[in-house]
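G., the chain you wanted modeled:
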Amino acid sequence: MPNWSLEDLQGVKPEHRRKMAPFDRGLEAPTIASGVLTVTKFAVDPQPESGSTDTVDSIVWGGFGVLGAGDLLFIHIPADNTITFDDAVINLASGTRAVAPGGSLILIYDGTQWSEMAFTAATNNT
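Predicted structure as tokens:
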């Protein structure tokens, strides 16, 4: 993760600064609630509602500002969890995407929905 402060963003256009600022506050660990992953930052470590597995049916932005086309969401799965993402609302390369412990998923927002840009298994992240 980049390690910059808001002072480093002087001279950056305000609309771009808004998109970069959430990284300054670290990785978010939101809990999945009834299939909904509500995120307020662009880098997340989602937590299951209970146990060590869960399914994400939709992603809701609850952060500062409005999502725009081209916004990225970096999802990293913690070491003890497996999270399955459903293709019903998220445009995935496959019908569902089970992300095992240590795996990652990068999504891009096109203005109406999230789409998969990249997926790595845990073995790719070592």
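The chain has one domain: 6-125.

Shout if anything looks off.
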